[in-house]
Amino acid sequence: MSGTIKRGTVRRPVQPKRKQAAKPSVIDRAITALPVSEATLRKAATWTITGVVGAGLIALASFFGIPGAIGTAIGEGIGDAGFKVTNIQITGLNRMDHNVIYKIAANQPSMAMPLVSLEKIRQDLVSHSGWIEDVHVSRRLPDTLLVNVIERQPSAIWQNKGQLALIAANGTWLEPVDPQAMPDLPVVIGPHANEQEVSYRTLLDAAPALKGQVKAATWVGNRRWTLTFETGETLALPEGDTEAAKALVKFAQLDGVRPLLGKGWLGFDMRDPTRLVARKPGVTTNKAITDPGAAPGMAPTAAPSATPSPAASESSAPRLTALKRTSTDSQA
Q: In CA terms, which of 30, 121, 161, 285 is 20 to 30 Å from 219?
């Protein structure tokens, strides 16, 4: 008897499913597109995290009032970890020497970044030179100090005791001036004249027609101005900013009606606001230039006429009357 052999169904081995490659995220694609290597990015991230931790330690030390010795030790430790000043970037210089500013900024007890006093650097620089008006100092971790210098601008030349110097608008002394190479700036003369630079410019602004004709101004007795014009005449003004401005405006009006400058006069005196006294060479008496009909210290304002007659023009112009020299006519 023959047996029947049953063949079982042959099972095929199961093929493992292939895993699909994960698609890169938007952040990964953005990082790949950057023109820096992955190692550089990791290093930057490490420095950033270290910087945040270091700044936090400094803040905690300040908040809890850690004693100076311990705080210094912590600061030095942070410096040893890489937070030490090795680079000083200076901007804003026009007249100051870069090396001088660098030496002052680098003159610190410690170059560990947490121990560098930004305020001390600022004060040292501001006190070093009149040219420096202000300084902004900041840190850029891990190793750079940023120093931005704001310089003053020269505003006038100050002549005092035979010496010439540039001064700023607030009167700060800047540097000596060579008489053979004087810049085109206003000249103020006399003790404390530098402190009156702002009031002097305000005075000239009151009479724009004369501003370009003033060569220098002398601060007399620490109380008033005497102007010197390009044509050589002097004009003594009264005390007080308001009174001096009114007198200068009055003189400009008189000079506009009947030119006074460049006509042979030596000088004018308007310390008495009700008159203008003039001097000529070789004359021992002064000439008072008065304006009939005008209020004391003010020029009259007349309505313009269509065609003024010669007689009317002559009567409206200032007239000259002789006055004897008195003690009030001398410069004081």
A: 285
